Each structure stands twice: as structure tokens, then as C-alpha cells.
Amino acid sequence: MNFTQEELLLMMLYSPGSRLGLAEALRAMRAQLAPDEAELAALTDSVLTKLEAMSDAAFDRLDLYRDF
């Protein structure tokens, strides 16, 4: 799965370490967004769509923190 730099950063910020945990955290954050945060909402939706399409094993192979 190909993620943009912005998507990877969002994932890094919200990931508790698992694909399902990240999806849950992003959904909770998404529910708190204001109407004027449409760009962040769209980014979150894109990440959620990609997370739903990948397996836990594929998520585990991601190195979200490689630049740190």
C-alpha cells in the first residue's frame, strides 16, 4: 500500500501500534473535527480507506518511525 508523506505523518501521530487501533483512533479524531477542517477530514478518510484494504501483517511491515 502506498501512503503519502502526509498520510504517514498522520499515522505516526495516532498509531497505538496496531492497524485496528490506528483505525479506531483516527475515527475518534475524525468525529471531533470541525466543518472547516475538511482537508484533515479528507486525509483521515484516505488513510482509513487504505488501512481497511490492508492486512495486519502488511501494517506490521510498515516502518512509521524510520525517519526518527
Describe the overall structure.
- This protein is globular.
- Helices cover 66% and strands 0% of the residues.
- The chain is mainly alpha-helical and 68 residues long.
- The chain has helices at residues 5-14, 19-31, 38-53, 56-61.
- The model has no long low-confidence stretch (mean pLDDT 94).
- Helix 1 packs across helix 3 (38-53) and helix 2 packs antiparallel against helix 3 (38-53).
Reconstruct the topology from this structure.
Blueprint: H1 5-14, H2 19-31, H3 38-53, H4 56-61
> Which structural class should the secondary elements be placed in?
mainly alpha
Extended strand count? 0
Strand content: under 5%
In whole angstroms, the N-to-C terminal distance is 21 Å
Unreliable segments of 5+ consecutive residues: none
Order of helices and strands: HHHH
Individual helix count: 4
Mean pLDDT: 94
The profile of the biggest β sheet is: none
Shape call:
globular
Radius of gyration, in Å, reads 12 Å
Helix content: 55-70%
Quickly list its features.
single chain, mainly alpha, globular
Q: What's this, in brief?
A:
The chain has 68 residues and is mainly α. It has four helices and no strands.
